[in-house]
UniProtKB/TrEMBL annotation:
Gene: pdsR
Organism: Aliikangiella maris
Ranges of residues in domain Response regulatory: 4-120
Listed name of the protein: Proteobacterial dedicated sortase system response regulator
Domain OmpR/PhoB-type span(s) in chain numbering: 134-230
Modified-residue entries (4-aspartylphosphate), positions: D53
Length: 230
């Protein structure tokens, strides 16, 4: 069986177009037109990846509510927003809820397929890692395990998404070196705009601060990017 993808989209034509294309790629696609349909199905079984619209029928934030539910069930389940809403507020809201990617519907289908494939490759690292020492990064209180995609600070687990993990990994791998937004996007295997990278960085900082209120290791280098303090 192929990977199980949940597509939550209230517009029938879009739903049918994407589901047909995904099935051609070998995925098992399960479509839902409403928040209620999706949540009822997810109570029985979670998908391997979820693609969510935000506005669902008469619920303008139905997709956000589904995202919140899925992230509460699994910290590593890939979640993609695919929506016509392209404001910075909506993008940041989606990322704050734990989505791994936020795409607008003017993106090409080929790009969507690349994103899905990339997210599945990341998830495979959870079960296929070799556990070699070079896959472990330890800098002060930070521990990163690139095989299991686990991040720890002061021996406490950080609840971060896959995208956030790879952004953090890219900075921590070379402490003191500035990483541009483009380099961080490349590390995360995501094609997003500057504001989205900034949103991920803000969310990472907040998650560290929950554990350690004095955290200040992620430094903004204005006009250049970000770095992990050496």
């Amino acid at each position: 069986m192929g990977k199980r993808i949940a597509l939550v989209e209230d517009e029938k034509a879009i739903r049918e177009n994407y589901s047909a294309s995904l099935r051609k790629q070998g995925y098992d696609v399960f479509c839902y037109a409403t928040k209620q349909e999706a949540l009822k199905a997810f109570e029985t079984r979670l998908p391997d990846l979820a693609i969510l619209d935000i506005g669902l029928g008469d619920e303008p934030e139905g997709g956000f509510e589904i995202c919140r539910y899925l992230r509460a069930q699994s910290e590593t389940l890939p979640i993609i927003f695919l929506t016509a809403l392209d404001s910075e507020f909506d993008t940041i809201s989606g990322l704050r809820l734990g989505a791994d990617d936020y795409l607008t519907k003017d993106i090409s289908l080929a790009q969507v397929l690349v994103r899905i494939s990339t997210l599945f490759r990341r998830v495979n690292a959870l079960s296929s890692g070799s556990g070699q020492p070079e896959d472990i990064i330890e800098i002060g209180a930070l521990q990163l395990d690139a095989n299991r995609l686990i991040a720890m600070w002061n021996n406490q687990p950080l609840d971060i998404t896959l995208t956030e993990f790879w952004i953090l990994h890219a900075m921590a791998k070379r402490p003191g070196h500035v990483k541009s937004r483009e380099q961080l996007m490349e590390a995360a295997k995501a094609v997003v705009d500057d504001s989205t990278v900034t949103s991920h960085i803000k969310r990472l900082r907040k998650k560290f601060i929950v554990i350690d209120s004095s955290f200040d290791c992620i430094e903004t280098v204005y006009g250049m990017g970000y770095r992990w303090k050496a």
